[in-house]
Specification:
Length: about 280
C-alpha cells in the first residue's frame, strides 16, 4: 500500500531550501513530481541523469510529452520526436512512473482513434497517462466510454485535473486571476482505470480553502488504497507557495484514515551555521 504525493514543480522562489540541489531537497519532502518542463522541450540526457542522481529509485516522475508531439503534431507523424524524448528520459529508469500525454482542448471524441493508434505504438514497458480537456469527454457518456475503452486496451490511465474547488468563487489574488483564465473547467472525475491512478488537484491560495476542496478526494484515494491500488496525487495552488506542505498534509489526512499507510520521509535537518 503506497500513496505518492507531490507538486507541479520541484523548485519555487518561495521554497527556501538549503543546498544547490533543489530536486534533492524537494525529494526529501515529496515522493513524486510532475515533469511539466518537458512539455516545452525535450531535455538533454545529461540533465535527466542529474535528476536521477538527486532522487531515490522509489521517487516518481510523471513526465509530460513535448507539445510538439501532443499539440503541434497531435500525435501524428511524431515518431522521431517520441523516440528522442524516450531516449532522453531513459536515465530515470524506474523513477519514470508514467509518460503523461496532455492533449489540447480541441482534441475531442473524433480523435480517439488517433490516440489509440499512438498508444499502441508506445513501448509496453512504459505506463501512459492521458489528460483530456474537451468537455464532451466529461458530459457525453458515449464519448467517455469510447475513451475509457481505448485507454483500457493498452492499460493507460485517464488523468483528471480537478479544478472544481478553484472555480467555486471568483479569484482574490493575482495568481488566482491568472489561473482563472488558463485552467480547464471540467467536471470532477474519480474513476480509476488502472492500479496506478494519477490525480491533479487545484486548490486556492488560501490553504484552508484548498484543504476544504480536497475532502472528496480523501474518500476516493482511501478507497483506491483499500482496493490495492497505488495512487499518486499532485496538489496545486495558483501561487504554489504552500504546495509541498499541502501535499504532505494530504498524505497525512489519508494516513489518519489508514494508519497502516507508511509515513512520508522526514526532511534532513539543515546543517547549523558556523563561523568558520
Amino acid at each position: 500500500m503506497k500513496l505518492h504525493v507531490g507538486c507541479a514543480m520541484w523548485t519555487h522562489k518561495a521554497w527556501q531550501w538549503p543546498g544547490k540541489e533543489r530536486l534533492r531537497a524537494y525529494a526529501e519532502r515529496c515522493t513524486a513530481v510532475e515533469g511539466n518542463t518537458t512539455f516545452y522541450a525535450t531535455p538533454a540526457r545529461d540533465t535527466v541523469e542529474t535528476w536521477a542522481r538527486q532522487t531515490g529509485p522509489d521517487f516518481r516522475f510523471v513526465v509530460k510529452l513535448p507539445k510538439r508531439v501532443t499539440h503541434e503534431r497531435r500525435l501524428t507523424d511524431a515518431g522521431a520526436d517520441v523516440r528522442a524524448f524516450l531516449d532522453a528520459i531513459e536515465p530515470l529508469g524506474p523513477r519514470t512512473h508514467a509518460v503523461w500525454i496532455q492533449l489540447p482542448a480541441s482534441f475531442g471524441p473524433g480523435d480517439v482513434p488517433v490516440l489509440e493508434r499512438f498508444l499502441r505504438r508506445m513501448p509496453p514497458s512504459l505506463r501512459c497517462a492521458v489528460e483530456v480537456r474537451h468537455l464532451d469527454f466529461f458530459t457525453d457518456r458515449a464519448a467517455a466510454r469510447e475513451l475509457e475503452t481505448a485507454l483500457e486496451t493498452v492499460a493507460a490511465e485517464w488523468v483528471p485535473f480537478d479544478t472544481t474547488a478553484f472555480f467555486t468563487s471568483p479569484p482574490t489574488s493575482d495568481a488566482e486571476r491568472d489561473a482563472w483564465t488558463k485552467k480547464p473547467r471540467v467536471p470532477r472525475r474519480t474513476r480509476a482505470l488502472t492500479g496506478t491512478p494519477i490525480v491533479r488537484y487545484l486548490g486556492r491560495d488560501d490553504p484552508d480553502r484548498t484543504v476544504d476542496g480536497w475532502q472528496a478526494w480523501l474518500d476516493v484515494v482511501t478507497g483506491w488504497l483499500r482496493e490495492g491500488r497505488s495512487p499518486t496525487v499532485f496538489v496545486h495552488t495558483p501561487d504554489n507557495a504552500d504546495a509541498p506542505a499541502l501535499a504532505r498534509r494530504f498524505h497525512d489526512e489519508v494516513r489518519a484514515r489508514l494508519p497502516q499507510l507508511a509515513p512520508l520521509p522526514e526532511p534532513e535537518p539543515a546543517e547549523p551555521l558556523t563561523l568558520f
